[in-house]
Write a structure and sequence with these properties.
The complex is a heterotrimer of chains A (214), B (389) and C (233). Chain A is of the alpha/beta class. Helices cover 38% and strands 9% of the residues of chain A. Chain A has a 5-stranded parallel β-sheet. In chain A, helix 3 links the parallel strand 1 and strand 2. In chain A, helix 2 packs antiparallel against helix 6. Chain B is globular, with a radius of gyration of 22 Å. In chain B, the strands form 3 sheets. Chain B has a 3-stranded antiparallel β-sheet. In chain B, strands 6-7-8 form a 3-stranded antiparallel β-sheet. Chain B has a single domain, classed as Orthogonal Bundle (Cytochrome-c3 Hydrogenase, chain B), CATH 1.10.645.10. Classes of the chains: A alpha/beta (214), B alpha+beta (389), C alpha/beta (233). At the B-C interface, helix 2, helix 9, strand 6, strand 7 and strand 8 of B face strand 3 and helix 3 of C.
């Protein structure tokens, strides 16, 4: 998309793209343990139907997925597989960590073989706490993710700038960007640290039941 | 059954024919890796198959992708904390995991729960069996390629989960059993709700019977496949419906004397002489129907009284060792509890049913075709938390 | 409850075709006698809880022949096989309040039912499906050479159980076809179920101990919290 690479995207176009992106998510279910059953209930049962949100559950492969829902305990033996799955997904991709085992190790916080939280391996956008979280809680997490996607600035994301409103607000408060999101002091040559920082721009994660929502 | 003999003979003949063809074509062996993330395995089980054409020459399940270290964790927790943790071993039939552990602790303390608690425990145990096996019946379709039954299973399972949530507060992982009884009494109106829900589950069993078990494709994919003779089953320690499908008439609910109220109801144990995948699945269907009958009968016989005996608030279980095993939805699950008089156990050995059930996979998968690998695994029915603990 | 008879009565094990009868002590005593006729005085100790359960401890050398004798006597169902580490954990059981002064750790190795002389023991359980009776067999693992004979040629299911026992305790099994890790990744160091294997998360952040009543936020200055510390008796 040449427009996006070169400059900024017109706002109505961004809004249209974001809306259509958020309402047509394809979710890869990485169901590992008990939370996988609640995820299955959320995705497969007619009561907590997730398809009414526009989210379709079964992609044929991770390369066709928009976001991954990691549900269940991640063990140290399984961790490389999770990393490889994440790397296979094309951008833009998001991750939801469902259940307390995936959030922080959960009831197995002191075990010798459990990875204490999947955010040690992949960056997470939404945390859904619970053991297991009710299917409605997972749906709430998906709705919050959809809200975040609707407020994204796609061009900035692809350039590596701050792209969520929260990040832009904070950068404005720090005096780095002006109202339009332009950098105040254009650097002549981007230093390696700045390039690295741009690469690793991470949005603030959302926690269902608390945390920032933009 | 002559049908099985004939099918067996034709299967062997086709295998021999293929072997001849492979030799003529000089095909090389290929290693096929199923899992650890695969929609057909109930979790993160990895099976490495070495193939010769379409046949499996050697198969090996690699477990451990869900190993959470239960036996070490129980050593640093108190008895109520272990009850919470132990719910999550067999995560579909979760109340059923707590019961043998609590019974072992009660055996060490030499107390028994009051009759009302025993009957309610039995009812919740059977409800968790129905919840567990109804999802199995739905997943059976998915593993053949038929997606509809799993939606029906999730829908009808919701009735049972509502009941368990109404009584205990948790859809699964109820954490409701306590040493000496139960945490709370049943809420008002629960018994009537349960009667209605159990009727709906009986309709679900009839639907699955028509939809799946009467289906010609299902039958030809399951009959005569994965035959496990009775003495091999005993050697490996197969239990539950897997053993009863091979003709072993053994059910821990009937054959041992533990304080659960199975003798108050009139029910039967189903066995099947064949020992193939079809028999294992069919026995589970019949057992679900039987569980519905047990629950309906027990609901009329809940005695009045307390649900908890007098136990101290901070429980220290006296020194000793105890072994209790029960007929869980997956098979025989038992706990060997070693206590040294403290607040928590000294060592707990968790004997989980699926560990033994899956140890037979290398033997059972020799010489089968690749599509049959999935159906044999489906019929053996395991849950990863149960294998890996 | 029938009293535990300490001499062999004529009431021997009932016939294998009477599954409806509740097993009495004569049944379990008969099992011990039958085993004694096969392996003699390799039976070190026994314990019967009447009408309930049976434990037998045999000597290390007779581990395999015990299994064979019991299998021939009708115990054809293999339940499980695992290990026991009787050393008390040097890190405590996290029932103590970490603010207390640390007590002297208890280092005395006390074995459970049917005793023992070593730190490690292996134990297995077999069931007779016709007579509906089970037996737990224990054996000491010699401290200087942690190796036992393998049951995997006797009971095929013992293969996986011995692999798990090996990776968790470090007990080797002779004649086992394929002794490698069952659950843990290949590069895992240490034997987790040994008592001296620490759980690092608890080292870093100890559990606050047993607290009986959490004080309400407004009340902490007014009322001292009621703490019940789990003392080891």
């Amino acid at each position: 998309m040449g427009l996006v690479d070169k400059g900024r995207l017109p706002a109505p176009l961004t809004k249209l793209f974001n809306m259509s992106r958020s309402y047509s998510l394809w979710v890869y279910q990485w169901g590992l343990a008990c939370c996988a059953i609640e995820m299955g209930a959320a995705f497969g049962s007619p009561r907590y139907d997730v398809m009414r949100l526009g989210v379709i559950p079964l992609p044929a492969s991770p390369r066709q997925a928009d976001f991954v829902c990691v549900s269940g305990t991640v063990t140290d033996k399984m961790a490389p597989a999770v990393k490889r799955l994440w790397e296979q997904m094309p951008e833009p991709k998001y991750a939801i960590s469902m259940g307390s085992c995936a959030n922080c190790g959960g009831p197995y916080w002191d075990s010798y073989s459990v990875t204490k939280g999947v955010d040690q391996i992949i960056p997470i956008d939404v945390y859904v706490p619970g053991c297991p979280p009710r299917p409605e809680a997972l749906l709430e997490g998906i709705v919050l993710l959809q809200q975040r996607i609707k407020n994204e600035d796609m061009a900035a994301k692809w350039r590596g700038d701050e792209f969520t409103t929260l990040q832009r607000t904070r950068a404005m408060e720090a005096g780095e960007v002006d109202r339009d999101g332009e950098l105040i002091n254009e650097p002549t040559d981007p230093t390696p640290e700045m390039a690295q920082a741009a690469d690793s721009v991470q949005p603030e994660p959302i926690v269902v039941g608390g945390g920032p929502i933009e | 059954m002559t049908l099985t003999d004939r099918q067996q003979l034709s299967y062997i003949a086709s295998q021999a024919a293929d072997a001849r063809l492979n030799v003529e074509l000089e095909t090389e062996g290929m290693t096929l890796n199923i899992g650890p993330q695969h929609p057909a395995t109930h979790g993160t089980l990895r099976i490495i198959c070495r193939l010769d054409g379409e046949q499996v020459v050697w198969a090996e399940p690699v477990a451990g992708y869900m190993h959470r270290g239960y036996e070490k964790l129980t050593e640093v927790r108190t008895f109520p904390q272990v009850t919470t943790l132990v719910n999550r071993i067999d995560w579909l039939g979760s109340f059923a995991n707590e019961v043998p552990f609590i019974l072992a602790a009660e055996k060490l303390m030499e107390i028994e729960a009051p009759p009302r608690a025993q009957v309610i425990r039995t009812i919740l145990f059977e409800l968790s069996r129905i919840a567990n096996v109804s999802l199995f019946l739905g997943d059976l379709g998915v593993q053949m390629g038929a997606i509809t039954p799993v939606f029906l299973a999730f829908r009808d399972r919701e009735y049972i989960l509502n009941l368990i949530e109404g009584a205990t507060g948790g859809r699964f992982h109820p954490n409701f059993d306590r040493i000496g009884g139960l945490k709370d009494d049943l809420p008002k109106g629960w018994i009537e709700e349960t009667r209605g829900a159990v009727k709906k589950l009986e309709q679900f069993c009839d639907t699955i019977d028509d939809l799946l078990f009467g289906n010609e494709i299902f039958q030809s994919r399951m009959r005569g496949i994965g035959i496990i003779p009775a003495d091999i089953a005993k050697d490996y320690g197969l239990s539950g419906a897997n053993a009863r499908a091979s003709g072993i008439d053994w059910d821990l609910r009937r054959d041992q004397d533990i304080p659960l109220s199975y003798d108050l109801a009139d029910w039967k144990v189903w066995t099947h002489p064949d020992g193939d995948s079809w028999a294992r699945c069919w026995i589970r269907l019949q057992e679900t129907r039987e569980s519905c009958k047990i629950v309906t009968q027990l609901l009329d016989q809940i005695p009045a009284g307390p649900v908890m005996t007098k136990v101290p608030r901070i429980i220290k279980v006296p020194e000793g060792e105890a072994w209790v095993s029960t007929e869980n939805p997956l098979g025989e699950m038992g706990y060997y509890v070693v206590s040294k008089g403290g607040l928590g156990p000294f060592r707990v050995k968790i004997r989980s049913a699926s560990f033994n059930n899956i140890s037979i996979v290398p033997w059972a998968l020799k010489g089968v075709y690749v599509p049959d690998v999935i159906t044999i695994l489906a019929s053996l029915y395991f849950i990863l938390g149960d294998i890996d603990r | 409850m029938a009293p535990l008879s300490d001499d062999t009565t004529t009431q021997d094990a009932p016939g294998a075709d009477a599954p409806a009868a509740l097993p009495g002590d004569g049944l379990r005593e008969g099992i011990i006698d039958n085993l004694r006729s096969h392996i003699g005085d390799a039976i070190v100790d026994t314990k019967i809880t009447p009408n309930d359960d049976l434990w037998i401890r045999v000597s290390t050398e007779a581990w395999l022949s015990t299994g064979q004798a019991l299998k021939d006597a009708g115990f054809t169902y293999f339940c499980f096989l695992s290990g026991l580490d009787w050393m008390p954990s040097p890190y405590g059981t996290s029932e103590e309040d970490p603010d207390d002064e640390p007590k002297e750790p208890d280092t005395e190795i006390v074995q459970g039912y049917t005793g023992g002389e070593t730190r490690f023991q292996v134990f297995a359980r077999l069931t007779d499906l016709n007579r509906h009776v089970g037996v737990t067999i224990k054996a000491d693992v010699p401290d200087d050479r942690l190796v036992m004979e393998s049951w995997s040629h006797l009971f095929a299911g013992a293969n996986w159980h011995e692999r798990e026992c090996h990776e968790m305790y470090g007990i080797g099994f002779d004649n086992h076809p394929d002794l490698r890790n069952m659950y843990l990744p290949g590069d895992f160091e240490g034997y987790p179920l040994r008592k001296d294997f620490p759980l690092l998360a608890r080292m870093v952040k100890p559990w606050p101990g047993i607290v009986d009543v959490e004080p309400m936020p407004a009340e902490d200055e007014a009322e001292a919290p009621v703490d019940e510390k789990g003392d080891e008796s």
